[in-house]
Write a structure and sequence with these properties.
The complex is a heterodimer. By secondary structure, chain A is mostly helical. Chain A has 13 helices and no strands. Mean pLDDT of chain B is 85; it is low at 1-5 and 20-32. The chains are: A mainly alpha, B alpha+beta. Chain A: It is found in: Cell membrane.
């Protein structure tokens, strides 16, 4: 007798949270990240006009959080039970706190979006009504934007806190995860907002806002790489459970997703596009969209990897 | 010697079966006085033969859908790879009766209760048992991922999370023992209030070495396991 007893069977098979949750984490990250970048830049530069970047970020954030919520609801065992999460609360639960944050985030985001897009809304069938709503709240614009900035960062971080509370999984149950999710949300959100701004709101590829964002991209990416490295090191040097989970990075089912998707597409490709190509190509529109798509796909791979590899290695 | 011991164990087991109902009288005190019960279940690996009647009884008592159950028995082996079985002498066999009960560990600090966004995974006030308020569960499966024992599941009939709650609603609330405990013919399962020093479980755990699963996680499970002790020279 070893003095201990254990079992390996479980009452639930497979992962508790499948891919729709990874997609939700992805959309929520894009939404919070895009908005944080745009509002942060706006407050930093003291802008008061409706810049293409703000328009792009607010509409991107609104659409992505909507899609994210859809994924979340469809992943419930019965989507019609959704109202229960909105009616019953447990303040010890990270998810419940997240619901409260999202309940404040989404309406506020919709208002900020209306105000930012009031010129464009005029041409919609219900434009008069929507611009009327926007006009009512325009006086409170700055405080609303500051509150929304705080909420956007919270939503980004919340997706990390949400899953890092799962103590069974060494890859997921780390304190670095919320920071990693904020960093990756910022980089992919910025990329998404930039692409939408250039494609749909006629932002110049080399405007001052774009230049500032280009400059911010690399430090954020470096932070993201550092957080991933920190998780890997803590697993490799951790206890038996952590070391077992480290197999996810070398040879496990999900290691290809990590090395090709997260590292290859998310980090190496954007670096190559920017620094290994001629100045003519790296400043072109093709390179701009390609790098943006890389950042967004890399983030999707990261969320998929963390969720699936994380849940595959249980202590 | 070993035969003599197992006969002795059998007799003790038979006596304990008679004592069981007495151990449970404490529940009435709980309802009348200020006594706060802490229900525990003891699984004695030395007595379990793996017949699975506990599982059948549980499925019936709690009306679980076909193919789902709140408890499983995991068969384990203490044999050394490549050496003959110490019981039958064969190189390949399935004769070793070493089973482990897999079910909700009824943690005192239960992660499922902490993470549940709606309070559907909750602790019953009167008994302290971790159970479900089915009308509140949204089916988000947060509790299933959070359970360090993987002891929760989605009931395919109700579409909400489910766990072993010592038959709280179906039996315990009516003063009956959990179905598995009552159905076990080998007295491998003992149930009672450990806060009552006169209960059979209290006396049993006072004299028997028992262990808990993954105690380092700090969840303080209420299930105790008495592991098999190797017999023979």
């Amino acid at each position: 007798m070893d003095g201990s007893i254990a079992f390996t069977l479980g009452l639930s098979e497979g992962v508790a949270w499948p891919w729709p949750i990874a997609v939700y984490l992805f959309f929520a990250g894009i939404s919070g990240g895009a908005l944080t970048i745009a509002l942060g830049l706006r407050l930093y530069k003291g802008q008061s006009s409706n810049t293409p970047l703000l328009k792009a970020a607010s509409i991107t954030a609104l659409v992505t959080i909507g899609l994210g919520m859809l994924c979340l609801v469809l992943d419930l065992t019965n989507p019609l039970f959704f109202w229960r999460i909105l009616v019953f609360y447990n303040l010890n639960s990270v998810m419940s706190i997240g619901v409260i944050a999202l309940c404040a985030y989404m309406p506020l985001l919709a208002l900020v979006c209306l105000i930012a897009l009031k010129e464009e809304l005029k041409y919609l069938p219900m434009g008069a009504m929507l611009t009327g709503i926007a006009a009512k709240f325009e006086g409170q614009r700055r405080p609303m934007e500051i509150a929304l900035l705080v909420l956007a960062v919270s939503v980004c971080a919340y997706t990390g806190f949400l899953i890092s509370a799962l103590i069974r999984f060494p890859i997921i149950n780390t304190s670095v995860l919320p920071a990693l999710f904020v960093a990756s949300g910022l980089s992919a959100g910025a990329a998404a907002a930039k692409m939408v701004a250039v494609r749909f709101f006629n932002e110049d590829l080399h405007s001052s806002d774009m230049k500032l964002l280009h400059g911010a991209e690399w430090p954020i990416m470096a932070a993201e790489a550092l957080f991933i490295f920190m998780i890997m090191v803590s697993l490799a040097t951790g206890n038996a459970g952590a070391q077992m989970a480290f197999a996810a990075f070398n040879g496990g089912d999900w290691s290809m997703l990590f090395w090709l998707g997260v590292v290859g597409v998310g980090f190496v490709l954007p670096l190559l596009l920017n620094f290994a190509t001629g100045k003519r190509f790296s400043h072109s529109a093709q390179a701009f969209y390609l790098a943006g798509l890389c950042a967004v796909s890399g983030m999707m791979c990261l969320r998929l990897f963390i969720l699936y590899a994380g849940q595959s290695y249980a202590i | 010697m070993s035969e003599h011991l197992s006969r002795r164990r059998f007799l003790i087991g038979a006596c304990s079966a008679a004592l069981l109902p007495m151990g449970c009288t404490s529940r009435e005190d709980a309802e009348t006085g200020g006594h706060k019960p802490h229900y525990v279940m003891v699984f004695d690996q030395n007595k379990c033969v793996g017949c699975g009647e506990c599982k059948t009884a549980c499925n019936q008592a709690n009306g679980l859908p076909e193919g789902q159950s709140r408890l499983l028995l995991e068969q384990q082996s203490g044999r050394v790879e490549g050496q003959p079985c110490p019981h039958c002498g064969k190189l390949k066999c399935d004769c070793e009766r070493k089973f482990v009960r897999v079910s909700c560990q009824q943690c005192k600090d239960a992660p499922c209760v902490t993470v549940c966004p709606t309070g559907a995974a909750m602790r019953d006030k009167a008994t302290g048992v971790v159970t479900m308020d089915e009308g509140k569960c949204a089916g988000c499966k947060y509790c299933i991922g959070a359970c360090p024992y993987n002891a929760r599941f989605i009931n395919s009939a109700t579409k909400v999370a489910d766990n072993c709650d010592f038959c709280l609603e179906s039996r315990l609330s009516k003063g009956l023992l959990p179905a598995c405990v009552e159905s076990c013919r080998h007295d491998a399962l003992v149930f009672g209030d450990i806060n009552d020093p006169q209960s059979y479980v209290s006396k049993l755990l006072a004299v028997k070495d028992s262990v808990r699963i993954k105690p380092h996680l700090g969840t303080e499970p209420s299930l105790r396991y008495i592991p098999i002790v190797k017999t023979g020279v």
